[in-house]
TrEMBL record:
Entry protein name: Histidine ammonia-lyase
Record lineage: Bacteria, Bacillati, Bacillota, Bacilli, Bacillales
Biochemical pathway: Amino-acid degradation; L-histidine degradation into L-glutamate; N-formimidoyl-L-glutamate from L-histidine: step 1/3
One record GO biological process: L-histidine catabolic process to glutamate and formamide
GO-annotated cellular components: cytoplasm
């Protein structure tokens, strides 16, 4: 069981909830602060004090006072009017993480929401009820308003969900679960949608996939080094300690350990004096990506445990303060940074693929073809890798450098962080396909050199991947091989 405190959620907790079906509950230590902030909201409504988000309109309508008898209607109007996202739906892992993170923000006790509303979010997490949330439509400030509105609608019996593998109306799913729709009270609609959980959830999934892929990239690059009879001296510890980046040094150490008993790698001067940069500089390039991932993880963990709505109820309900914690700039910049770093991991892989297939750059069969000329072999796989890394260069254009004013210029600077997070996740998927192609080519090269000469570690991975992709004995539809290996690389059990 993972207990939410609003302060202690870690990446490992998210992995357990997503991939090990760990259940989630509210930590009992949070209950008092949740009740206190709720009581503060109820007092404001009862005393008819004018406070933004409780008895006013929203955005440019913040100066419009809402009468006491209309406060509940305001909550439904807020959700349905803001639920106008478009495009494909977020993947279920992203949606589940979105619900988890929103609940974790709400248990902090700054939002004035009833505990039963938070519990309903966690019921959906625990029972694998996935609201249908379109990916496009958030500016990444004022919170992820459109996606979080779609996320919240099923709580009140509106919108659609995926449940038991079928897309259903939320009302039908609630009836199947024996639950009644919740009638939201003052501020609760705003508390559900004013936050950064769409961009943060997408960023968390992108990070988890990127972290695993970065480790897999080192393993695949090690097999490539064997296939190209790469020079192991470039990975000597003294070189990397001389520069001083811990991530670079650690990457070189892992590759040395993977190749420690290989009879395929060479020493400087044995076959050539130096390798090309895509081989020689693996620790420097991959290590820089690891530096970026460390930065991104730090920002995501802070945001996973942040109060990001507005207004915030503080000092046990004594103050209700409007601010801007919903602004997604910290995550927007982190997502753009991760997209760039992962795109570079793809770029260097594509250059290694070229060295594996180009007969002018190696002593292997041209394009790793079993019958050069009659059969094309891996020729067009390199084309695909080149197309993917080129696409990544456009996806890696920073979303955070753009801002378009909204709400009649009341909200005049926004982060576009959700766009950045979506692009980062797409970049990671593209890079995973590039590494699947490198792995296929590297396996062919090492098979040609003799797998009996491979290092123990790389030979073990070679055997595992050969269960997914067989040796190229004749031309075939390689798209199936690429997709199968990319799917295998994505699976958590291969971490």
């Amino acid at each position: 069981m993972v207990y939410l405190t609003g302060k202690t959620l870690e990446m490992e907790d998210v992995k357990k909830i997503l991939w090990q079906s760990e259940q989630v509950a509210i930590d009992s230590a949070c209950i008092s602060s949740i009740h206190h902030s709720r009581s503060a909201v109820e007092e404001i409504v009862e005393e008819q004090r004018t406070v933004y988000g409780i008895n006013t309109g929203f955005g440019k309508f913040s100066d419009v006072r809402i009468e006491k008898e209309d406060v509940e209607e305001l909550q439904r109007n807020l959700l349905v009017s803001h639920a106008c996202g478009v495009g494909p739906l977020f993947e279920k892992d992203v949606t589940k993480t979105m619900m988890l993170l929103r609940a974790n923000a709400l248990v902090k006790g700054y939002s004035g929401i009833r505990i039963e509303v938070i519990q309903r979010l966690l019921d959906f997490v625990n029972m694998d009820v996935y609201p249908c949330v379109p990916q496009k439509g958030s500016l990444g400030a004022s919170g992820d308003l459109a996606p979080l509105s779609h996320l919240a609608l099923p709580l009140i019996g509106e919108g659609d969900v995926w449940y038991r593998g079928v897309k259903r109306s939320a009302l039908e799913a609630l009836q199947m679960l024996g639950m009644a729709p919740i009638r939201l009270q003052a501020k609760e609609g705003l508390a559900l949608i004013n936050g950064t959980q769409a961009m943060t959830a997408t960023g968390v999934i992108a990070y988890l996939e990127a972290e695993k892929l970065a480790y897999d990239a080192e393993k695949i690059a090690s097999i490539t080094l064997e296939g190209l009879e790469g020079i192991i001296d470039a990975f000597d510890e003294s070189i990397h300690r001389a520069r001083g980046y811990p991530e670079q040094t650690a990457c070189a150490a892992r590759i040395r350990s993977y190749l420690k008993d290989s009879r395929l790698v060479t020493t400087q001067g044995e076959k050539r004096v130096q390798d090309a940069y895509s081989l020689r500089c693996i620790p420097q390039v991959h290590g820089a990506t690891w530096q970026t991932l460390g930065y991104v993880k730090e920002k995501l963990i802070i945001e996973m445990n942040a109060a990001t709505d507005n207004p915030l109820i503080v000092e046990g309900g004594k103050k209700v303060i409007s601010g801007g914690n919903f602004h997604g700039q910290p995550i927007a910049l982190a997502m753009d940074f991760m997209a760039i770093a992962m795109a570079e991991l793809g770029n260097i892989s594509e250059r290694r693929i070229e060295r594996l297939v180009n007969p002018q750059l190696n002593t292997l069969p041209p394009f790793l073809s079993p019958a050069p000329g009659l059969q094309s072999g891996a020729m067009i796989m390199q084309y695909v890798a080149a197309a993917l890394v080129s696409e990544n260069k456009t996806l890696a254009h920073p979303a955070s450098v753009d801002s378009i004013p909204s709400s009649a210029n009341q909200e005049d600077h926004v982060s576009m962080g959700t766009i950045g997070a979506r692009h980062a996740l797409e970049v990671v998927a593209n890079v995973r396909h590039v590494y699947a192609i490198e792995a296929i080519c590297a396996m062919e090269a090492t098979s040609y050199r003799g797998t009996e000469n491979m290092a123990t570690a790389t030979c073990r991975w070679h055997v595992q991947m050969r269960k997914i992709v067989s040796t190229i004995t004749e031309d075939r539809m390689f798209a199936k091989d690429i997709e199968a290996l990319a799917a295998w690389l994505k699976e958590e059990k291969n971490a």
